[in-house]
Structure formats: C-alpha cells, structure tokens
Design brief:
5 strands; alpha+beta; OB fold (Dihydrolipoamide Acetyltransferase, E2P); 5-stranded mixed beta barrel; 46% strand
C-alpha cells in the first residue's frame, strides 16, 4: 500500500511540474518599440533592431484600432506588442501601431 501511495504522489508531482512548465511557456509578455521592417516573407518583424517571429495567427491593428494586414502598415511605426517565448525564438501574437 505504501508503494502505491508513493507512486501516486510521484505522479501528481510530475504532472504538476509539467503543467507548470506549459503555463510558463504560454505567459504573455508585452513591450513598446519601433517596427522598422518585415523580413522573410513577412514572418519576421524587426522591432528595435531585434527579430521577432510573427505568429500566423497574430492580430495586427493600425493606429485607429482597425484590424489590418502586414502589407497595410506604414513603416517605420511605433508599436505595442504582446509576445511569448518559445524554443525557436520570441513569437509575436499581437501587434498594435500606437499614436506618435
């Protein structure tokens, strides 16, 4: 019986650790910067001379709050971004042009 309880407690600890890892990866971060270019077929945004991967599902808004495509943005532009860290790099999930 003690062995079963030990295994059960061990499994709960492992599940909690794995779940916590996923929660840490999905945490959203935010920043302000200047968007100067899109590269690699618009999959990479250059913001303050750093490369950020654009998520295919990223939401993009102009300075009026209208949802737009990457091609409609006038560069350079001051932006607010929300992003998360991933093994491949920093992934942008939200990009909003801010008023100057």
């Amino acid at each position: 019986m003690k062995r079963f309880a030990f295994i059960l407690v061990g499994m709960v600890v492992v599940i909690a650790m794995v779940g916590g890892g996923y929660a840490a990866q999905s945490k959203k971060n935010s920043a302000f910067g200047t968007l100067t270019a899109f590269e690699n077929r618009n999959t990479l945004a250059v913001i303050d001379d750093k490369g950020y991967i654009m998520s295919p599902k990223a939401l993009i808004y102009d300075k009026l709050g209208n949802k737009v495509s990457i091609d409609e943005l006038e560069l350079p532009a001051p932006v607010y971004i929300e992003f998360s860290y991933a093994p491949d790099g920093v992934i942008v999930t939200l990009l909003k042009v801010t008023p100057r």
